[in-house]
Design goal:
The complex is a heterodimer of chains A (190) and B (801). Chain A has 190 residues and is mostly beta strands. Chain A contains two helices and 13 strands. A ten-stranded antiparallel beta sheet of chain A has the order 4-3-2-5-6-7-1-8-12-13, with helices on one face. A three-stranded antiparallel beta sheet of chain A has the order 9-10-11, with no helix packed on it. In chain A, strand 6 and strand 7 form a beta hairpin. In chain B, the strands form eleven sheets. In chain B, strands 8, 11, 12, 13, 24, 25, 26 and 27 form an eight-stranded antiparallel beta sheet that branches. The chains are: A mainly beta (190), B alpha+beta (801).
Chain lengths: 190, 801
């Protein structure tokens, strides 16, 4: 156990279905500079949210956002989850350790214990780098290139990690201590 | 200019000109290394071995064309044909690995020979033999201790056929010249393959690959044109994605959802034409396979076949199409995953035994009987009269390796040895596509749209070579029931596939409370867990599923949910709409229903009936199929079949000779030999002479060499006298070697029919092996006699002492 500091995890679930664009617009202040994982049938794209726009490693705006079936947009402050449920409208959830002001969302807060975690991202530093600033290009023979948003400079032999936070609390019924939630935070060179 | 083969597919023949060993990676009994055998337990050359060896042959050609270098334009062509090898790559490689354009099937023995061998166990064994080997100490040049080993080796002379296909779809459009270069280069590779399999530098595995008669013409064309050829087409998957910069090429149009319309099921029958690996998870160097085919594997096929007639993307996005998982066929329908509420008597009971099964949702735990939960396998339809059929798929395991070129053996640097678990060939599955009436009406405007779904496709892992070939047949659509009644106030629920639900924070969950809330919302009733101390009411297990998204070129998020077979019972407060129950059964619940997740069944009779008093009658055994026809002398397999048959005869003769030689009465009956006290009749020196002279009997023409020995013996009194106390030994032996029928009378207990596969095999082999049979029998009898004589002499010596 790394830490015994208690925190409050605030979660907000939308009371009605909305488009991903609408969800991003609602959380734009908290999500500025966030990393977006956008899943669609054709591609899994990684983007950065700046000035309410999702851009890729070429610096181009992501098109076809209405075809995303699931999205996770996160920074160290907040995570937005969105799941398409009917014709581009989906349920939206915000998670944060600080209270957000969101109308038409059901708020739930829970005392829990945070635990930092990290996952190594596939690929080593590639020879070529992406056009846009704030991105690092990783490569791995099995998958090819993978552009990852990361402000830090990546040296050869260094790896990029996905930083996350797990939240532990006693479960309601049996009292077992368990991971009740996990929030994505950032991509960092470790 | 020679013509390319039709449909860019062709067959190669591999003739093994020496004994060969393509190892299975394990051994049995005293055999350290067994040969790889197929589903009929016959030796074959796995596609992975053949692909590797053909690539090696083509690389030899590329090295020559690139001026002896290990990189260059022609090596790029090899990578274009056979695909990149990420396992061998070093450093951060930016381009995504190129797929292969060639697919190579496993090489099997000729069908006539296979059919003939399949029915004869004795012959299947005779196709290979055990070869001893030993490691030599390089310092001393002598055998190293503890290094004796036995390897199974297949007899030389086998001719195997393999299918090869070319598929340029990842590179379309491809010009005609590219196709011709690829074909010519592969033919050049086949010409350069001389050996394959294990110990190929020590004489094993010599082979000749032949293709169609035009190979030489193609090689001449290649020779004349190769200097004008440029680099192969580039793989531009990434470039096209960058240019497009959108997440989906075709935007789905909103579809009007009508919840009251009739749903239709379109049954699919799926037969595996090769082993199929549906990756479940990778543990170390073993890829485990599922025992079913998830519905998502058919989505691409549907796009290709009916994508023109229907906005499939829109249907998928709005859950207006469901493709159920393909599970093993039981009595013409898809098997259902065994519900976890069934328990079998631990000793002598259970679904597999067809008796003593308890449904713990309606039956209390019996006193004094230990129960065990039924896990795995699939059950058929239940009729209230007997226990349902229960089938499990026995997954096979094949071991492969990645060979490092420099050392020409598998090493851990390049992946080493790995194993694939696989669904066996000829397994039949059942699945169904479900669509609402509105989609069916749209589809019906296209004539014969169901028939378009028939076909062969490749799915799962390693599908370019020996795995993943399946055949889909489509049957007539049937309307699904629109009503499902509820008897009483209990609602039982059975998960027919894994079910994925999310909690209020959109996190995948396996909390039963979330399921209850979802169902309450759908059915507009209050559901409570049944409270009964005697009975179980909830049997659920969680399951996670990992997989690879081919289109993304990345793994997709882990699927966490409830395992198929989970079941539970609710107490219902309120009235359930029968239409809603039927609709949920048709459409399922939770995420990814189009891929086969979320299939449920309400109040299935199997979950609501008492089972402990029921049994299952064993289904009648299948009638024996007619025996295969013997292989005709004009068949191309005749020569090899006769070789195997001969080996089987030799084995039978040796076994029978040893059995006869162990019996003193038979020794006396056949050769007249006797043992009196510690004396041999005739003397051992005479028998030594007999053995020497019998060795000269190599064919019927050699009979005179033996009879002249008898004549000389009879003329010499002191030699003749040594046979006086035998049971007419001299005459018996003379008759044995002069009458060609006597030996076969002694071997009359052998069932020759069980090892007969060639036309006229019995009479021909009787002639061919007559001398060998006589030698074998005489030699075995003399040895047996000597052993018993030594025992008798030992006994007398001990008594005297």
């Amino acid at each position: 156990m790394n830490s015994t500091i208690e925190t409050t995890l605030y979660s907000y679930a939308s009371n009605y279905l909305m488009t991903l664009e609408a969800a991003i617009a609602i959380g734009r202040e908290s999500l500025e500079g966030a990393i977006a994982l956008l899943y669609s049938p054709q591609t899994c794209q990684i983007a950065i949210l700046k000035n309410s726009q999702l851009t890729n490693s070429s610096g181009s705006r992501i098109l076809g956002i209405q075809d995303v079936f699931e999205a996770r947009i996160f920074n160290s402050n907040c995570e937005l989850r969105w799941l398409n449920q009917t014709n581009g409208n989906g349920k939206t959830v915000f998670l944060s350790e600080s209270q957000l002001s969101l109308e038409a969302f059901t708020e739930k807060n829970q005392k829990c214990e945070p635990l930092s975690q990290q996952y190594i991202v596939w690929g080593e530093k590639a020879k070529n780098q992406p056009k846009a600033e704030g991105w690092q290009r990783l490569a791995e023979a099995r998958i090819g290139k993978l552009d990852i948003p990361c402000e830090q400079t990546l040296e050869k032999h260094q790896r990029i990690y996905l930083k996350t936070k797990e939240y532990l609390a006693a479960e309601d019924q049996c009292g077992n201590y368990a991971v009740i939630e996990e929030r994505l935070l950032n991509m960092e060179v470790a | 200019m020679p013509q390319l083969p039709q449909n860019l597919s062709f067959t190669i023949q591999i003739k093994m000109t020496s004994d060969w060993h393509v190892g299975s990676g394990n051994g049995y009994g005293e055999v350290d290394s067994a040969v790889q055998r197929d589903h009929d337990n016959l030796p074959y050359i796995p596609a992975k071995t053949l692909t590797g060896i053909l690539r090696d042959g083509c690389e030899q050609a590329a090295i020559a064309l690139d001026g002896g270098k290990k990189t260059g334009q022609w090596h790029n062509w090899i990578n274009f044909i056979f695909g990149d090898q990420p396992a061998l790559a070093e450093g951060a490689i930016e381009p995504a690995p190129r797929p292969a354009v060639v697919s190579i099937g496993s090489a099997y023995l000729d069908n006539d020979l296979r059919d003939a061998l399949k029915a004869k166990k004795g012959l299947k064994e005779a196709i290979a033999f055990i070869k001893p080997g030993v490691a030599i100490d390089p310092k001393t040049g002598s055998a190293e201790p503890q290094c004796l080993r036995f390897e199974e080796v297949v007899r030389m002379g086998a001719v195997l056929n393999a299918d090869i296909g070319l598929d340029f779809s990842p590179y379309e459009p491809v010009d005609q010249t590219t196709k011709e270069i690829v074909y010519a280069l592969i033919l050049a590779g086949t010409k350069l393959v001389e050996r394959l399999g294990g110990k190929r530098r020590r004489g094993n595995g010599n082979c000749e690959i032949t293709t169609d008669a035009s190979r030489d013409k193609w090689l001449r064309w290649f020779k004349d044109n190769y200097s004008d050829i440029e680099e192969p087409p580039s793989f531009n998957k990434e470039e096209s994605a960058d240019e497009d910069n959108s997440l989906l090429v075709q935007n789905p149009q909103p579809i009007t959802v009508n919840n009251t319309e009739t749903w239709w099921r379109i049954p699919l029958r799926i037969k595996t034409l090769s082993p199929v690996v549906i990756p479940k998870r990778t543990v170390g160097n073993v890829v485990e396979s599922l025992d079913y085919i998830p519905g998502r594997y058919f989505i691409g096929h549907l796009h290709r076949k009916i994508g023109q007639s229907l906005d499939l993307n829109g249907a998928i996005a709005t859950n207006q199409i469901i493709i159920t998982n393909a599970t093993v066929e039981i009595a013409g329908r898809a098997g259902k995953p065994t519900p976890f509420c069934l328990f079998g008597k631990k000793l002598g009971g259970g679904l597999s035994k067809g008796k003593s099964v308890y449904n713990r949702f309606v039956e209390a735990e019996p006193k004094g009987i230990q129960l065990k939960g039924e896990r795995g396998g699939y059950v058929g339809a239940f009729d209230d009269e007997q226990l349902p059929d229960h089938h499990s798929i026995k997954l096979g395991v094949n071991t492969h390796n990645t060979v490092q070129d420099e050392v020409q053996r598998p090493t851990s640097d390049v992946g080493g040895v790995y194993s694939y678990q696989a669904i066996p060939i000829n397994t039949i599955f059942r699945a169904e596509i479900r669509i609402p009436q509105s989609l069916k009406t749209e589809l019906d405007q296209t004539q014969d749209w169901q028939n378009k779904l028939d076909g062969i496709l490749r799915i799962g892992q390693s599908k370019k070579d020996q795995y993943g070939k399946i055949k889909i047949s489509v049957e007539r659509p049937e309307a699904l029931p629109t009503q499902k009644s509820l008897k009483g106030n209990l609602l039982s629920l059975w998960f027919l596939s894994d079910v994925l639900l999310r909690d209020e924070r959109l996190q995948p969950t396996t909390d039963p409370e979330v399921l209850r809330q979802v169902l309450e919302k759908e059915l507009q009733v209050t559901l409570t867990k049944r409270d009964d101390d005697e009975l179980m009411s909830l049997m659920m297990r969680s399951q996670r599923n990992e997989s690879w998204q081919v289109r993304w070129g990345l793994p997709r998020p882990t699927m966490l949910g409830w395992q198929a077979g989970s079941c539970l019972v609710y107490q219902v407060e309120g009235d359930i709409n029968p239409q809603k129950l039927a609709e949920l059964e048709a459409k399922g619940i939770g995420d990814r229903r189009v891929e086969g997740y979320g299939q449920i069944s309400f109040n299935d009779p199997l979950l609501t009936a008492e089972l402990s008093k029921l049994e299952r009658e064993d289904s009648k055994s299948q009638p024996d199929s007619s025996p295969p026809q013997p292989i005709a002398s004009n068949s191309k397999s005749f020569e090899y079949a006769r070789l195997i048959e001969t080996a089987a005869w030799r084995k039978k003769i040796q076994d029978m000779a040893l059995a006869i030689a162990a019996d003193p009465e038979k020794r006396e009956e056949i050769l007249g030999l006797r043992i009196t006290d510690d004396q041999s009749h005739p003397s051992m020196s005479q028998l030594g002479g007999l053995r020497s002279v019998i060795r000269n009997l190599q064919s019927p023409q050699d009979i005179s060499k033996v009879t002249s020995w008898f004549d000389a013996l009879k003329k010499t009194a002191n030699r003749r006298e040594k046979w006086d106390k035998t049971d007419d030994g001299l005459d018996k032996i003379r008759t044995l070697v002069t009458n060609d029928q006597i030996i076969w009378r002694h071997f009359s207990d052998i069932n020759w029919q069980s090892i007969k596969i060639t036309e006229d095999g019995k009479s021909s082999l009787k002639t061919e092996l007559w001398a060998e049979a006589v030698r074998t029998l005489v030699d075995a009898i003399v040895r047996g006699h000597k052993r018993d004589l030594e025992k008798a002499q030992d006994n007398i010596r001990e008594e005297a002492a």
